[in-house]
Each structure stands twice: as structure tokens, then as C-alpha cells.
Amino acid sequence: MNDLHVRIADWHKDYEELRRIREAVFVAEQAVPPELEWDAEDSDAVHFLACEGDYPIGTARLLADGQIGRVSVLKDWRGLKVGEALLQAVIAEAEKRGLSQQMLSAQVQATPFYEKLGFTVVSDEYLEAGIPHVDMVRSSG
């Protein structure tokens, strides 16, 4: 991983890559129904692409209210700090936009990852698309 970088994506220009990653992770791997994966918020969200060189390997999105979602890294690149780089970029962009609190719905198995980045669990466990989740919040400053 010598050329990992994260950039803000253009929903229209980068749509195919964003879709390829999210379909692989959520729809194919985790069996999330496609109608739950794609929503009206995508067109207004700030999207991020993590790339190794020119090849997109991860994505996330930030909504105007500070909600972070659709964090996904292709299987072969997990455990290589791609998710961490993605989240740090999303948090930095949120803070730049004056969003001092960021929220996300985390898969329960991923909570230790988010806790390392400053998020705290603020809800009981619940099911989303058949997968156990908790709400998490991070406050800046």
C-alpha cells in the first residue's frame, strides 16, 4: 500500500466506481437488498473514494447533517488502514464544513474500529438490513 490516497468523489463522474465497491461489499458480500443500499441521499451527499494509485478500493459518504455512511473497503484491502484513511478524510471534511458532531450507524462487529477514531456507542443494538448495528457519535474539539 504505497500509494493510498483519499479524495472527494463526484457522484456523477465516479458513480460506476462508487457503485462497484458498494455492490461488492454490501449487496454481494453482506446480502443487503439493492433497494436498501441506494437511496435519494446519494445525490446530495459528499462521497469519498480511497484509491491505491488510480484504482478505487473503498468509499464512504457524508450527509449535510454530519451523518457518515456507506463506509466500505473491498475485501482484499481490509486490514491495511484503508478504512482509517477514509474515515479521517470524512471527519476532516465534516469539520471543515462546520459539522462538529459526526454520527454513524455501525455494524456491531466494526464498533472497535470506530471507537479508535473517537466514536462512542449511543444506542442499543438494532437490526438494519438484517445486520446488527449501533448508533455512534463523535464530537470534535
Automatic annotation (TrEMBL):
Keyword Acyltransferase assigned: yes
InterPro entries per record: Acyl_CoA_acyltransferase (IPR016181), Bact_Acetyltransf (IPR050832), GNAT_dom (IPR000182)
Enzyme class: transferase
Keywords associated with the record: Acyltransferase, Transferase
GO molecular function: acyltransferase activity
UniProt xrefs under Pfam families: Acetyltransf_10
Entry keyword Acyltransferase: yes
Stretches assigned to the N-acetyltransferase domain: 4-141
E.C. no: 2.3.1.-
Name used for this protein in its record: GNAT family N-acetyltransferase
Source species taxonomy: Bacteria, Pseudomonadati, Pseudomonadota, Gammaproteobacteria, Pseudomonadales
